[in-house]
């Protein structure tokens, strides 16, 4: 059996832990640069605020009825670690799927004790972190995700739902679940399934696995087996190394200064390189893009991108930044006020298995010194905090740093932002 433990409205819940005054109020968390709503409390949903809604489209009258906060990722990341640490006390098999979701292996547990186990986990996480969770229990990951969905939508279950493979209740749930809402089914795949007259999760379960594989993919065939209660998807299938890595941000204000774009590209390139090394890959090319603000109709509109091929696969921040800067120089247009830019690393290959070239310069001692330098840089930043060592320093009034006008304190990771309590 597998459990999926999912935190409820995780970002909002983290904020409420340190500000109980937010309980019962409509609360939303905004994306980077306070652009759009990325997390909503139940109260905010009832006001009709949709996920992804741009903050500037919320009317002043509606805004007075809610609290909008900037993203506080340092706080959310630390709270996520605390939740997973508690889950680790209940099972040695923990697979963190996202910042607010983890799969938990339950091999060896008594079947009659599973629901009680789920309630114990929920109580312990709530007691020790203040984060409410729901628990889905099932023999496969896909069914566990579905069970968690049911647990969230039916309060009478107390936050815990178990779906056995062949139970009548499981059939009722899958018959009512549109196939596009099923974990692992993308919108385009759902449209293609509809052409095969498959509209619900139950209909997909009843489909011929081999026919599904021929028509779609081996991944879709695995979904069929998972819906039937036969484990076919390992977490590695879900978290396989990405084929591209992108880092981009909207600016806090528009800028036409090339130097500011260069600084932003340098920062984004360095961040992308960190992610690249973390997953053990190297990039063969770098894509750079810039764009103006499409919502400012009175402004000159411009968007462009440039791909720069590398001499050979690389994960060296210096080489990636240099390529990105060449791409920026090729597409920068004077007289435009830019709203966003970004760096994407393309054609990723395994760092340990990529094809070497006899003609490629930089092998040997120079390459080894570069690898040692990057490893040292990553180690220092991991041990002493992000950006302890970085490439260049942003200007004091640069346009590109994140705008976080409504961010709460990073209570658990910054000594100077610890919560102050008055005792009378």
Our measurement of the CA-to-CA distance between the termini, rounded to an integer number of angstroms, reads 51 Å
Q: SSE order in H/E notation?
A: EHEEHHEHEEHEHEHHHHHHEHEEHEEH
Order of strands, widest sheet: 5-6-1-7-8
The tally of helices reads 15
Helix content: 25-40%
| Biggest pleated sheet | 5 strands, mixed
User: Which word captures the global form?
Assistant: globular
Uncertain spans, ≥5 residues at pLDDT below 50? none
The overall strand count is 13
Average pLDDT: 88
- Determine Rg (CA atoms, Å): 24 Å
- β content, as a range? 15-25%
Structural class: alpha+beta
Question: How is this structure best described in words?
Answer:
The chain is α+β, with helices and mostly antiparallel strands. It is 39% helix and 20% strand. It has a five-stranded mixed β-sheet with strand order 5-6-1-7-8. Strands 9, 10, 11, 12 and 13 form a five-stranded antiparallel β-sheet that branches. It has a three-stranded mixed β-sheet with strand order 3-2-4. Strand 2 and strand 3 form a beta hairpin. Helix 10 (209-215) runs antiparallel to helix 11 (218-227). Pfam families: DUF4113, IMS, IMS_C. Residues 2-186 form the UmuC domain.
SSE topology:
Blueprint lengths: L1 E6 L2 H9 L7 E5 L6 E4 L1 H5 L13 H4 L2 E4 L3 H18 L3 E5 L2 E5 L8 H16 L3 E6 L2 H13 L6 E3 L5 H9 L10 H9 L5 H6 L2 H7 L2 H10 L7 H4 L6 E11 L2 H21 L2 E12 L10 E12 L2 H15 L6 E9 L2 E2 L14 H20 L40
Parallel strand pairs: 2-4, 7-8
Antiparallel strand pairs: 1-6, 1-7, 2-3, 5-6, 9-12, 10-11, 10-12, 10-13
Helix pairs in contact: 4-5, 10-11, 13-14
